[in-house]
């Protein structure tokens, strides 16, 4: 039985169970005795958490889960910027941080964590599917999922406000009076892309724009995949709307290269807006107009959220969406 399951039975947070198991302060004596009695009734060993002496400094763990790598590894430093911010913030709070990469069996990775030496865990949820969510219930310490809103699943999470931020991009295109608008959408399903798709459709209606199914281009969210995928559309004679929004910058940049090879000029013939503001968006040709994501803020608030869970043992779940009003206008639209 896991600590989270015991916490559910005791109607307390997993952090409270951890405090009792490790004989730490922060729990009333009455509640401590109640939990110890429950642990005894459940035949849960209270000695298995005492392998390390108290003076051993504990870590925070950054669990980088990679299912395909399309979004975690291929998105030109997007996750790395969040990691840098987390490392900086952990140093401020005097936490040590270690990184674990898992690309095969998430459940086994979580099961094999040495929880006696970990106070809390950051989980990169970019490529988590809904079928993966229940696996996280096996985590025995406080954790925060990053880059996934984790809808309808009880956990702490932090990500960007996708729908609001897509609205900013589409609003910019609407000011250019497009006859119609197209959408470059990821073939790989992810929670962020689902939310951006909803945001796109909502914004199209809000600003009275024209969009139809023929104007949606489904592409692999890598530079090579979006480039080759758009080339196939072009080779098959697909009509290309003069205004395009892409789910992320990687998709937009790959598409621009294909369009340019087929003689399209950007922005004269086609204007395009991306999402994320990765470093390549400022150096590609032409530089890409894009929605800036506050990655540093996501990292900072992830640490604040996890630290709060560890120190105050909040029994609820907090889901944070970081918004941004920053549309970085570059030469792909002007």
UniProtKB/TrEMBL annotation:
The record's listing under InterPro entries reads: HTH_LacI (IPR000843), LacI/GalR-like_sensor (IPR046335), Lambda_DNA-bd_dom_sf (IPR010982), Peripla_BP_I (IPR028082)
- Indicate the segments forming the HTH lacI-type domain, all copies: 1-58
Gene Ontology MF term list: DNA-binding transcription factor activity; transcription cis-regulatory region binding
Q: Where are the transmembrane segments?
A: none
Which SMART domains does the entry mention? HTH_LACI
Q: Name one Pfam family in it.
A: LacI
Which branch of life, at top level? Bacteria
Keywords, sorted A to Z: DNA-binding, Transcription, Transcription regulation
Q: Which PANTHER family has this protein been placed in? A: HTH-TYPE TRANSCRIPTIONAL REGULATOR GALS, LACI-RELATED TRANSCRIPTIONAL REPRESSOR
Descriptive protein name: Transcriptional regulator
Originating organism: Sphaerochaeta pleomorpha (strain ATCC BAA-1885 / DSM 22778 / Grapes)
């Amino acid at each position: 039985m896991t600590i989270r399951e015991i916490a559910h039975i005791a109607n307390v947070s997993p952090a409270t169970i951890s405090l009792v198991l490790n004989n730490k302060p922060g729990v009333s004596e009455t509640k401590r005795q109640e939990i110890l009695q429950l642990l005894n009734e459940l035949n849960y060993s209270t000695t298995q958490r005492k392998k390390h002496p108290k003076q051993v400094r504990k870590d925070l763990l950054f669990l980088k889960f990679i299912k395909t790598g399309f979004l975690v590894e291929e998105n030109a430093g997007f996750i790395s910027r969040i990691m840098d911010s987390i490392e900086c913030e952990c140093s401020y709070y005097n936490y040590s941080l270690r990184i674990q990469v898992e690309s095969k069996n998430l459940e086994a990775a979580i099961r094999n964590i040495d929880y006696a030496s970990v106070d809390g865990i950051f989980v990169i949820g970019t490529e988590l599917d809904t079928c993966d969510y229940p696996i996280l219930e096996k985590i025995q310490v406080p954790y925060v999922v990053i880059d996934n809103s984790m809808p309808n699943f009880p956990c702490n999470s932090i990500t960007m406000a996708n729908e609001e931020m897509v609205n900013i991009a589409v609003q910019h295109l609407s000011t250019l009076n497009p006859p119609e608008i197209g959408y470059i959408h990821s073939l790989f399903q992810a929670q962020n892309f689902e939310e951006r798709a909803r945001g796109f459709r909502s914004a199209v209606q809000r600003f009275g724009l024209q969009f139809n199914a023929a104007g949606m281009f489904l592409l692999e969210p890598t530079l090579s995949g979006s480039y080759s995928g758009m080339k196939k559309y072009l080779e098959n004679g697909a009509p290309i709307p003069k205004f395009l929004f892409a789910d992320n910058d990687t998709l937009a940049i790959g598409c621009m290269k294909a369009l340019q090879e087929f003689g399209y000029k950007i922005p004269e013939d086609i204007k395009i807006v991306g999402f994320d503001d990765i470093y390549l968006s400022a150096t590609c040709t032409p530089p890409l107009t894009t929605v800036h994501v506050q990655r540093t803020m996501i990292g900072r608030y992830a640490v604040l959220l996890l630290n709060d869970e560890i120190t105050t043992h909040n029994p609820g779940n907090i889901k944070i969406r970081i918004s941004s009003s920053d549309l970085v206008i570059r030469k792909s639209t002007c």
